[in-house]
Specification:
alpha/beta; eight-stranded mixed beta sheet; about 45% helix
Length: about 325
């Protein structure tokens, strides 16, 4: 099934180039202030915000860009090109190219890795920050830690041993973490360690996408359309590009905590209680460390931006109206 055409075409689009890598950006609407909806992991293009852009652009100015490795942007073949620092620099370059002095940031999943340094270290450019299903490992989570250790491991036997060790480490979490209990009921961790592996991607990239989008990310009932769209997006890139994007430098927990303490702008954190990719505990800790407001979407999975668009859209709009009360829509009842 082919993804439907966008509801709204961009009013302006272009490219920025840094160190030979071209990044495609789009601008929708002319209202103020501006929202910059940041890219996620390179497994999806900026179309991941397709349920937000048409609504928000009716009220505000919205800027998106395809993260390097996705969409119309270049796909450099070196892991260093996918460091979180490169995405931060891309975001600043896109803001400059689109004449955006200051903006409210929207981050989905791994996009939190770019939004947090932007808000902490470039506060003069950031009015507020919304973190949706954020991938910021601020508390221990053995499934992610194990996948990071075994991603390059060619031996199935050694991956199986690592996953068994992770299960033992996870046992104490079962008593105090509803997220871990839900994860244990829904995910075959041995299968996950097998498929979240670069050697498996090279053999059966589609098989990985089917597991990742259909089980780990899209676990909420009646998500067939969202899962099909996620597959279509994932197939727009290739396993070697995605592997480099996975290897790219990410924020270490201690560094993320340090950055959280530096954030001075208003923060919203929106997270599904059944997110198997990014546990709810990460969102709770992010809200606590930044003094942000947390919205927990009961039963929501990792795909809440496309699965629960109304709740996400209203959270973004409320944040904008808080930081920019002079905006033309301020004072109106929230709605369409």
């Amino acid at each position: 099934m082919t993804e439907p055409a966008p509801v709204r075409d961009p009013d302006e689009q272009g490219f920025v180039e840094r160190d030979g890598v071209r990044v495609a950006w789009q601008r929708f609407g002319d209202g103020e202030p501006t929202l910059v909806l940041l890219p996620a992991w390179s497994i999806v293009p900026s179309r991941v915000w397709k349920a937000q852009v048409p609504y928000l652009a009716r009220h505000f100015r919205v800027v998106t860009f395809d993260g390097r490795g996705s969409g119309a942007s270049d796909r450099p073949r070196v892991a260093a090109a996918y460091s979180y620092r490169e995405f931060v620099a891309d975001a600043l370059a896109v803001m400059d190219a689109s004449a955006t002095d200051r903006a409210v940031l929207g981050a989905f999943s791994r996009g939190a890795q770019w939004a947090l340094p932007l808000a902490a270290e470039h506060g003069e450019r950031v009015l507020g920050a919304a973190f949706v299903a954020s991938l910021l490992p601020l508390t221990p989570w053995p499934p992610l830690e194990t996948v990071m250790r075994t991603f390059e491991e060619p031996s199935a036997a050694r991956r199986a041993l690592a996953s068994a060790a992770a299960l033992r480490i996870s046992l104490p979490l079962l008593a105090r973490s509803a997220t871990m209990r839900h994860f244990a009921r829904r995910i075959n961790f041995f299968e996950g360690v097998t498929k979240y592996n670069v050697h498996y991607w090279r053999r059966d990239y589609r098989g990985f996408l089917e597991w990742f989008v259909g089980s780990l990310a899209g676990s909420e009932a009646h998500s067939t359309r969202q899962i099909e769209t996620g597959m279509e997006w994932g197939l727009q890139t290739d396993p070697e590009t995605l592997a480099d994007a996975w290897r790219g430098e990410r924020l270490a927990p201690d560094e993320a905590r340090r950055l959280c303490a530096q954030v001075r702008c208003p923060v919203r954190v929106v997270h599904g209680t059944h997110d198997l990719n990014c546990p709810l505990e990460w969102a709770q800790e992010l809200a606590r460390l930044t003094g942000g407001r947390l919205l927990e979407l009961e039963g929501g999975d990792h795909l809440i931006a496309v699965r629960r668009p109304v709740a996400v859209n209203l959270a973004l709009r409320q944040l904008v109206e808080e930081v920019a009360p002079e905006a033309p829509v301020a004072g109106r009842a929230l709605g369409p």
